[in-house]
Write a structure and sequence with these properties.
alpha/beta; TIM Barrel; eight-stranded parallel β-sheet; 8 strands
Length: 305
Amino acid sequence: MKTLGPLTLLIVSVAQLLAGPRHIIDTHIHIYDPSRPEGVPWPPKNASDLYRPVYPKDYMKVIKGTGVDYTVVVEASPWIEDNQWVLDTIQGHHNVVALVGNLPIGQKEFEESLKRFDKDDRFVGIRLRRIPKELYRSPELIEDLRQLAKRKLSLDVMRAGVTPADLAFWAEKVPNLTIIANHGIGMNPNGHPVSEEERKEIEVLRKHRNVICKVSGLLQPLSKSPDAHHLDYYRPVLDLIWDVFGEDRVIYGSNWPVSDKGGEYGQYLDIMKAYLAEKGDKATQKYFWRNAMKHYRLNKVIGLD
């Protein structure tokens, strides 16, 4: 077999870098319709920029030309039947492939609801939003987390009220559960170095290999500062995330349509492409699609190689 020379290897490496991600899986969008007879529990009526029907067809218009191949819906509604509404709504949309649901974790209805939705391969996990603080470390919650792990479903977590120490506790109690911290684990880029206090808080998750960071929702600051349109505005937060989690524990998500508050969909995507280009082709492919395939176990609904 002929060996490639240094110049050829360099050309191949540059070509890979310029090519960018071969696939893109957006692991975080919302769909909903406030005009339904029953309405919606989220977003609130006073959120004028969000309170409108949002369907897969609307998302398809937004991502046109961006290179996004597939997406995962994250359910914001606590109404159990809204999980079914999403699954029914995305049926037939081959680009919208999965749902991270919203079920009453830590409550008696949880197990039966989980059994019901787990029958659908598109149901890949649940998202823990706001629950009473006293439930965080309760036996009931831990048992429900074990049920998720047993079924090979993931747990998405929104930072609201949940600390990295809570995530570390769950990761230790249920080491075979994949825990996905949403929106850059709640870190808000501001163009300045990350405080030592915040750095120490996030550091506790370094050793927990089953805790993943979804780098989503970072676009929102774009409307607040002209500097937010540049990669360096986000770099302190991104560098900390990559240092703590590493290239195997980060995934891409947009948080559309909430991300519209900051700017156009392609702006955030371009910022992340630029950052990942510095990390190399292997890290780029992991961040934009390989890690999503692995951590959400999407091989049941799509085939990528």
